[in-house]
DNA sequence: AGAACGATCGACT
DNA sequence: GTCGATCGTTCTA
């Protein structure tokens, strides 16, 4: 059920794709929070100018990226929000997957409270609870104190998604047609290691990253209404 | 010691 | 679509 170290100890692009459709679990004092991962981005400090650790830059902030796979990398962004990543690959290889959007499953009223959303949730506010890297950290109560936390432990971890939510597969199984009609030069249709239809597209807000702005290292679950931004067709 | 800059969000035109 | 909030990290000197 719970993903083990060897899941994370693989190439960062593989892990970023394979995390789509998995369930993120945070066991907190006020309740258990569960959400399905629907959007990720890969960052590789060996070859990717968008990565904090490029080129092999080991600082106090990025040191967890140089540690073993399966640990949380949480940092402050724009002075007011957090971003949550999971370290991949072996130790001494700096890389991580940024979690960018989630489909809330369990503990949604607690999440709404953390997000300062009034109850009851409407369909629209529910979809936006975790539709961005900063929002999902608020909703799932992931803070900088979680930086370095072992995701193979018992409080913050990822597990296979239960059968009751496996309609993920059915809703996205026959979706190759979408690739044909729109001339998406900057999107690519893929199948995740666990068989889900996903789209690879450019990463968000890394305009400074030179050639890496064109890497198709963002992965989204096809047709999910819980994404931060739909995979674009601009450029 | 000081300055520049975000892997964002929500309010607003 | 634009813009400001807000502060830790990093670099330069």
Mean pLDDT: 93
* Largest sheet entry: 9 strands, antiparallel
The coarse silhouette is globular
Helix content estimate = 10-25%
Radius of gyration: 17 Å
Instruction: Write down how many β-strands occur, each being a DSSP E stretch of 2 or more residues.
Output: 9
Number of helices: 7
Write up what this structure looks like.
This protein has 235 residues and is α+β, with helices and mostly antiparallel strands. It has 7 helices and 9 strands. Strands 1, 2, 3, 4, 5, 6, 7, 8 and 9 form a 9-stranded antiparallel sheet that branches. The radius of gyration is 17 Å and the shape is globular. The termini are far apart. It binds a DNA duplex (13 and 13 nucleotides) through strand 3, strand 4 and helix 5.
Outline of this structure?
The protein is α+β, with helices and mostly antiparallel strands. The chain has seven helices and nine strands, in the order ααβββββαααβααβββ. Helices cover 17% and strands 26% of the residues.
Secondary structure elements and their pairing?
Layout: H1 5-8, H2 12-18, E1 23-28, E2 31-44, E3 72-77, E4 81-87, E5 95-106, H3 108-114, H4 123-127, H5 133-139, E6 156-159, H6 167-171, H7 177-181, E7 188-191, E8 197-201, E9 218-221
Antiparallel strand pairs: 1-2, 1-6, 2-5, 2-9, 3-4, 4-5, 7-8, 8-9
This protein binds a DNA duplex (13 and 13 nucleotides) through strand 3, strand 4 and helix 5.
């Amino acid at each position: 059920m719970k993903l083990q170290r060897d899941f994370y100890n693989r190439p960062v692009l593989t892990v970023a794709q394979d995390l789509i459709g998995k369930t993120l679990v945070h066991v907190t004092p006020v309740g258990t929070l569960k959400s399905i991962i629907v959007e990720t981005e890969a960052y590789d400090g060996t070859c990717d100018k968008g990565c904090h650790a490029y080129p092999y830059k080991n600082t106090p902030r990025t040191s967890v990226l140089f540690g073993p796979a399966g640990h949380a990398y949480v940092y402050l962004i724009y002075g007011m929000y957090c971003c949550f990543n999971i370290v991949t690959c072996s130790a001494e290889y700096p890389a991580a997957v940024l979690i960018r959007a989630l489909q809330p499953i369990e503990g949604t009223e607690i999440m709404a409270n953390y997000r300062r959303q009034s109850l009851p949730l409407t369909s629209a506010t529910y979809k936006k609870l975790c539709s961005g890297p900063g929002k999902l950290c608020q909703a799932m109560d992931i803070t900088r104190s979680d930086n370095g936390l072992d995701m193979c432990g018992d409080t913050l971890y990822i597990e296979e998604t239960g059968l009751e939510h496996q309609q993920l597969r059915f809703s996205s199984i026959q979706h190759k047609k979408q690739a044909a009609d729109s001339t998406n030069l900057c999107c690519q249709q893929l199948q995740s290691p666990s068989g889900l239809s996903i789209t690879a597209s450019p990463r968000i807000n890394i305009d400074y990253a030179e050639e890496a702005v064109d890497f198709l290292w963002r992965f989204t679950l096809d047709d999910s209404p819980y994404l931060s931004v739909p995979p674009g067709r601009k450029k």
